[in-house]
Every structure is written in C-alpha cells, then in structure tokens.
C-alpha cells in the first residue's frame, strides 16, 4: 500500500519524459539543423540555450521527485518505528502483568 502512492507520480514522470523526448527535443534539434544549414557561419553559442534550459529543468524535476521520495520513505520509517515501540511496550506490559 505504501508504494501505491508513489506509482502515479512515477507514471506521470515517465509520460512527461516520453513526451519530452519524442516531441520537444527533436523539434529543437530540427530547428537547430535548419538554422545551421541556412547560415554557413560558425554556430552561435546562444543557439544551444534551449538545450541547456531543458537539461536544467529536467535536473530540478528529478531532484524534487527524489526529495519527495525521501520524505515519503522517512514518513513510512517513522510509522514503522512508532508501531514497533507500541508493540514492544505492549509485550513488556504483558510480561510484567501476570
């Protein structure tokens, strides 16, 4: 049940990555190729800025997804520790009682 909450997020990221890789990147590459064939001059460094922005954005998305994953995992570990403490205290009460 713990992994069920993470599945929609992972599916959304996979869909985003597929759409981005099949639509945006080839379109940007085609635009860059057509610009290079039109101009025989050396390429302008600013022409690569869309790629830089894309990598920068993807990196931040991955970072925040990882932070979310870690926070969920930490929350689940806290719940387990609390349950173990309750179980241990119940067992101690049972052994002390009779």
Description of the molecule:
By secondary structure, this protein is mainly α. The chain has one domain. Helix content is 82%, strand content 0%. It contains 2 helices and no strands. The longest helix has 48 residues, at 49-96. The protein is rod-shaped, with a radius of gyration of 25 Å.
Outline:
By secondary structure, the protein is mostly helical.
Helices, strands, pairings?
Layout lengths: L6 H32 L10 H48 L2
What would the keywords be for this entry?
single chain; mainly alpha; rod-shaped
Percentage beta strand? under 5%
> Which ranges are low-confidence, i.e. pLDDT below 50, for 5 or more consecutive residues?
none
Overall form: rod-shaped
Q: What's the end-to-end separation, in Å? A: 37 Å
Could you give the count of β-strands?
0
The largest sheet is:
none
SS-derived structural category: mainly alpha
Q: What is the helix tally?
A: 2
Helicity, as a percent range = over 70%
The radius of gyration is: 25 Å
